[in-house]
Amino acid sequence: MVASVNGRAIGSASRITGFAAHAAGVDRLLASYRAIPADATVRLAKKTSNLFRARAKSTAPGLDVSGLTGVIAIDPVAKTADVAGMCTYEDLVAATLPHGLAPLVVPQLKTITLGGAVTGLGIESTSFRNGLPHESVLEIDILTGAGTIVTATPERNADLFAGFPNSYGTLGYATRLKIELETVKPYVSIRHLRFQDVRALAATMDRIITDRSYDGVPVDYLDGVVFTAEESYLTLGHQTSDPGPTSDYVTGQAIFYRSIQHDGSAPKTDRLTIADYLWRWDTDWFWCSRAFGAQNPKIRRFWPAQYRRSSVYWKLIALDHKYGIADRIEARHGNPPRERVVQDIEVPIERTADFVEWFLAEIPIEPIWLCPLRLRQPGGGAKRPWPLYPIAPDRTYVNVGFWSSVPSGAGEPEGVTNRLIEKKVTEFDGHKSLYSDAYYNKDEFAGLYGGDAYTALKAEYDPDSRLLDLYSKAVQRK
């Protein structure tokens, strides 16, 4: 049965597996761990990924996570969910929305997993008030590199609990996460504000984050898109229960990011169901579906709606990587392979305009996505450190996302544009996510991503180095 809200299907039905079924899945996982030769690197046996960096092939068997893909239990009174580590957000949202609940942060792509969003970080338009996905985790079971299941909470195995975010499977893999949920209303009312320059946009964003409102209306969701230096937008979402017509960017022909644009004479308004709002970016993978022709009206009309989604585009990307299609096309035109520039970075909000203006002047990629975030302090408690991604509490950052490729000059070193971006991000006191290519040297990397704290965690929870270390995985692509 497909779950629905207001008569609209909200995604694939999520099976509630229960704790007994989950325990059986954990048993299979442990058995698969024991079957991996002692001299082989432990990896997941999964064919899909939301990572954009290349990974070395392995002939050794991998971890069987096939029994760790469901929602285990939902407590609608306590507003919590126990979720298997490989459960996708699509399945989790399908299970929670019928209760009028949602995760505090729902990353943009349906097939991102709970474990992946915590160990690899995730972000969305609630992050200015709810932080990052790992901040709503109450407890987590982790298969460590030592082959044991460890339960980590802020009080129990607290070093692992704090160090797991941004560890990318180098300290272990999440088997179960207990997370907080929040109440949501059936609809999201949207206002798109146009700006003539990014400095005015950044200043308005800063005020909205402080006030949690704009022009007297509460703001529950906040992100933005920059098309050019002279055309940028903030999108403000407000939850509502008021019935009325809604737009459809999930199964319809319209494209969400194009719907944002207007002449700026007044804010443009729109309205979505809560489910369609959460997945507004997945249908076209933000704007990246244009590379496959999916935004061409003649093609889009015949492209089945169920195949307009990020997981399908991932398969097309995999085919391109396997057969080198794009590189072959460039070669036929006498050009070297293009450099892939697929990154999400965070810079403090006071440096956001500086970075965006530099980027627009130097890097030929558009549009770019903006998403503000502040670390969340549950219950107003003590400030909790997250050592592997040390952004400061009580400080607003803005995630800048850009996903495309740029011309590569003959004879240029590998990743020249990515290296340039890395230097600029560090100069502006920022960080970048590690889901894609990185080029830092070891000292730079250690200074940005945990250093001695990571080394200590690695020695404690993976003493025999059964898992790759973070530098080997993120930069050396092992």
From TrEMBL:
One Pfam family here: FAD_binding_4
Protein keywords: FAD, Flavoprotein, Membrane, Oxidoreductase, Transmembrane, Transmembrane helix
Membrane topology: Single-pass membrane protein
Keyword Oxidoreductase: yes
SUPFAM superfamilies for this protein: FAD-binding/transporter-associated domain-like, FAD-linked oxidases, C-terminal domain
Protein's cellular compartments: Membrane
PROSITE patterns named in the record: FAD_PCMH
InterPro entries per UniProt: Diminuto-like, FAD-bd_PCMH, FAD-bd_PCMH-like_sf, FAD-bd_PCMH_sub2, FAD-linked_Oxase-like_C, Oxid_FAD_bind_N
Domain FAD-binding PCMH-type: start-end pairs: 9-184
Main location class: membrane
Keyword Nucleus (UniProt): no
Superkingdom: Bacteria
EC numbers: 1.3.1.72
Gene3D superfamilies in alphabetical order: 3.30.465.10
The protein's name: Delta(24)-sterol reductase
